Amino acid sequence: MIPTPHINVAEKGIIAETVLLPGDPLRAKFIAENYLDNPVQFNSVRNMYGYTGTYKGKKISVKGTGMGMPSIGIYSYELIHFYGVKNLIRIGSCGSLQKDVKVRDIVVGMAACTNSNYANQYNLPGTFAPVASWELLRKAVDIAGQKGIDVKVGNILSSDTFYDDDPEDWKKWARMGVLAVEMEAAALYMNAARAGVNALCILTVSDSLVSHEATTSEERQNSFTQMMDIALELA
Question: Which of 19, 47, 76, 216 measures 20 to 30 Å from 84, CA to CA?
Answer without folding.
Answer: 47
